[in-house]
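Help needed: design a sequence for this.
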């Protein structure tokens, strides 16, 4: 195995095996490596430009405080050019990651320090720029402002805050003005802290939220680098999936989505479960203390977003053969989830139930005439589809990281949810990207990145209600929501089922289980 120190200090990937002995890399590998670098760099540059302008369709309109942060350019970006540029960025970013993964699979070894440094520089840039790609940051600021003023964001609505004349309440997006917060108790505490620090400036409130996201993002990148330091191929792959992946950086750092925090907490909890020695064959020897800590961390993730309880199922599956470890993990999870949601009370549950059945504009269920709001029968049907796909993946997804027993079930359950649930957004994929980086490379990588790129493409530009100029751009924008993206998402599900049925997770070979 080539050591991590064998990476050179240049931007040219180092090759393993036969190529490491001095042979020139084959032409296709060089082309893939160059295409990856060009795609990733171009995508991030376009996203930075779209974020930097004060009057950009990608940036939610809000008053800017004097001084910095945020750093912005007082100029206008043309609406049409912003749409076209961000569409190109979604495609280039997705293809750049895929080309890099293909190059690594063919023996390329990118300098890990260069990938890590490049990702951290991009994250730093997005942190000080205005939020872009989504209006959710304004919702966070609104709910944080409510909590800072002593109101209950699960009871009070943005409309009610706006009627008090509050400057933050007036900025709430019309779509959500009549709804209380849908986020978990820890999310409310985070938003309240940001509101205290940001005062009456929404831009400053969002800056604090983005800063914490950036710090946690960097922590996950460094953790992946440390965990995989002995394997240059998997180390490079992890940075391609996480550190320099424009799709994930745009979703959780540029836009400031709170999904970053539960994704990091659940990643830490699931990754700490490691198979010990001395137990019976096929069983995981995991100390009860470790299982307890893992349960607490997954519970923390669920305290940010209730959907992360799905990973509690993965935790239970991984520990199902050890009653003591399972009990400890469930005790840890319950100890942080139950009191928190009892504190939030029934208003949060009512808000979540009120959203049940609401579908995203670009989901593939519209091909079945399931549009916007699903009926109770359609809702139940989707639940059954999700359960069936999760069981199929638990059965057929190879356990190629046996020393990390929670990774395979976490991917099986979370990917089933991400691929077939009727309300999905690209930043939800943060739940699995770092976990996928701990799982050996396979065709699953391509499906996950393709699915995320298609969702990102559909939500361009994301920061405002500007419609693209009339003409072909309007027609294309409509087609992305009603035909192009739904077709890609449906194709991803079909391909996932095909991989489960055929077992062709690896091109032309069966990969032996390998430890992280």
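Sure. Designed sequence:
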């Amino acid at each position: 195995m080539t050591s991590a120190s064998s990476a050179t200090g240049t931007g040219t990937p180092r090759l393993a095996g036969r190529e490491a002995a001095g042979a020139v890399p084959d032409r296709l590998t060089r082309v893939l490596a160059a295409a990856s670098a060009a795609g990733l760099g171009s995508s991030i540059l376009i996203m930075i430009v779209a974020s930097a302008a004060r009057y950009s369709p990608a940036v939610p309109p809000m008053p800017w405080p004097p001084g910095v942060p945020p750093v912005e350019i007082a100029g206008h970006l043309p609406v049409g050019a912003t749409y076209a540029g961000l569409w190109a960025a979604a495609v280039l970013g997705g293809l750049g990651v895929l080309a890099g993964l293909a190059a690594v699979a063919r023996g390329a070894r990118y300098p890990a320090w260069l990938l890590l440094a490049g990702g951290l520089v991009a994250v730093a840039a997005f942190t000080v720029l205005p939020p872009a790609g989504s209006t959710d940051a304004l919702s966070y600021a609104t709910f944080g402002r409510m909590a800072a003023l002593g109101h209950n964001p699960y009871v009070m609505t943005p409309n009610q805050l706006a009627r008090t004349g509050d400057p933050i309440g007036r900025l709430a997006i019309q779509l959500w003005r009549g709804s209380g917060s849908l986020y978990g108790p820890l999310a409310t505490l985070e938003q309240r802290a940001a509101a205290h620090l940001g005062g009456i400036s929404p831009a400053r409130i969002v800056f604090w939220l983005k800063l914490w996201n950036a710090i946690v993002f960097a922590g996950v990148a460094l953790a992946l680098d440390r965990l995989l330091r002995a394997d240059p191929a998997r180390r490079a792959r992890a940075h391609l999936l996480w550190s320099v992946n424009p799709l994930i950086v745009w979703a959780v750092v540029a836009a400031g989505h709170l999904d970053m925090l539960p994704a990091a907490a659940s990643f830490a909890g699931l990754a700490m479960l490691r198979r010990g020695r001395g137990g019976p064959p096929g069983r995981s020897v995991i100390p009860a203390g470790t299982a307890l800590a893992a349960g607490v961390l997954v519970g923390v993730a669920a305290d940010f977003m209730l959907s992360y309880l799905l990973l509690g199922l993965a935790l239970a599956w991984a520990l199902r053969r050890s009653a003591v470890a399972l009990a400890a993990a469930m005790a840890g999870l319950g100890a942080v989830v139950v009191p928190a949601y009892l504190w939030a009370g029934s208003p949060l549950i009512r808000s979540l139930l009120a959203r049940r059945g609401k579908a995203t504009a670009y989901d593939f269920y519209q091909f079945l005439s399931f549009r916007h709001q699903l009926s109770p029968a359609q809702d139940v049907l989707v639940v059954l589809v999700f359960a069936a796909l999760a069981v199929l993946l638990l059965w057929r997804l190879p356990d190629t990281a046996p020393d990390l027993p929670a990774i395979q079930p976490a991917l099986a359950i979370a990917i089933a949810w991400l691929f077939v649930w009727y309300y999905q957004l690209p930043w939800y994929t943060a739940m699995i990207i770092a976990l996928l980086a701990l799982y050996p490379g396979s065709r699953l990588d391509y499906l996950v990145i393709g699915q995320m790129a298609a969702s990102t493409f559909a939500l361009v530009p994301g920061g405002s209600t500007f419609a693209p100029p009339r003409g072909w751009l309007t027609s294309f924008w409509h087609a992305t929501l009603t035909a192009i993206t739904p077709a890609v998402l449906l194709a991803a599900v079909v391909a996932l089922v095909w991989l489960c049925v055929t077992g062709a997770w690896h091109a032309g070979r069966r990969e032996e289980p390998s430890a992280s």
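The chain is about 60% helix and 0% strand.
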